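Q: I'm writing up a methods section and want to include an example of the input and output format. Could you take the sequence below and give the corresponding predicted structure tokens, formatted cleanly so I can copy it straight into the document?
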Amino acid sequence: MRIPLVLLLWAASLSGATFRAGLAKVDITPRGPVWMSGYAARTHPSEGVLNPLWAKALAIESPGGRIVIVSTDLVGIPRDLSDHVAATLKKQFGLGRSQLVINASHTHTGPIVWPGLRNLTVLPPGEQEKVIDYGKTLEDALVSAAASALHDLSPATIEFGEGAAAFAINRRAAINPNGPIDHRVPVVKVADPGGRIRGIVFGYACHNATLTAEFYQLSGDYAGFAAQAIERQHPGAIAMFLALCGADQNPNPRNTLDLARQHGNTLAGEVEKVIAARMTPVNGPIRTGFRLAELRFAPQSRQDFEAELQSKVPAQARRGEMMLKELDAGRKIGRLDYPLQAVRFGNSLTLLALGGEVTVDYGLRARREYSGEPLITAGYSNDVMCYIPSARVLREGGYEAVDSMFYYAQPGPFAEDVEERVFAAIRQVMKSVGR
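A: Here is the clean output for your methods example:
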């Protein structure tokens, strides 16, 4: 017997769902060979496509609020690009800056998105122009994905659940053998009033880097394989991956294509278990907040950067040269503006979106500080300007705290108060949405 739509909508309202949702996906695979990001060891442009790269968008609207979440199969999104996309969507749809989240999966088999990781390598003649042109095409594609999702709005129910996948390890074991991990797999299911799944958002706190520098085919790595598997299981649905706070976590084992597929299938299998079980209804209204916090770097002198010119590490020598040019131009280099965003769905679920490559301590601490209701803490959101080490990682030193700053052309490391500054801003943005 067919159940009238009005009864389905009435039943949905009883469960707390008062949403309209829209979904869309746009192919963002570069057309032709392009220099890839993620590894300094690469020596030439990409060689074909293992699987397409996607920008996927989920728009959700409730009385008095709305949000658009965009996931991308990219190493990162520079802030200038995300701000340009936000400005266009504000002009076209009246969408406020707090109502747009752009997350990057941090695949290491995607293209350079200029000027992100601008000191990763010295590009041969003509290659920088290619990645700059790709950035312009990418901006249009992100706007198109968000706009299509907004045009697709229709009644929807939303539910939340959580599983676990065990393939992530703390990659800093040589420094701290007991380093923390976070195996949780948060899952958000979007369905029409009849129960047909339209979209699945899932996340994991692990570097999306099963495939190492010798791989030259473009792909979404394990996150891309997971999304493909979920979409095969649910024809017509769109699966969106969010990179969580996994900057110091690696898939284990890694280094082969079969392992990338294996980890993707493991993650997809856990998502299927979550949506097959009883999930918690998500309710409205939607409240959003966005702010820029000031983070500070540890003091560095001109003499420090002059000494770097003699470094045997090419990226460090280049970083020293870049910083000296910044100082000669009279620009201040001791701070950066750091984006934080919160999206709260009634009293049922909150998404906290942090910029940069965020280490696992942030996700674990946020979960402890906001334990009253489900919380998803994503990194790699709205701007990936460098690693964001916790106080622990900063004390321990190593790649995430120090050496990575060479490749991002940042005057790091951060000052010792970086974690407390981030959490002071988290408390402010969470307060703005009622938490």
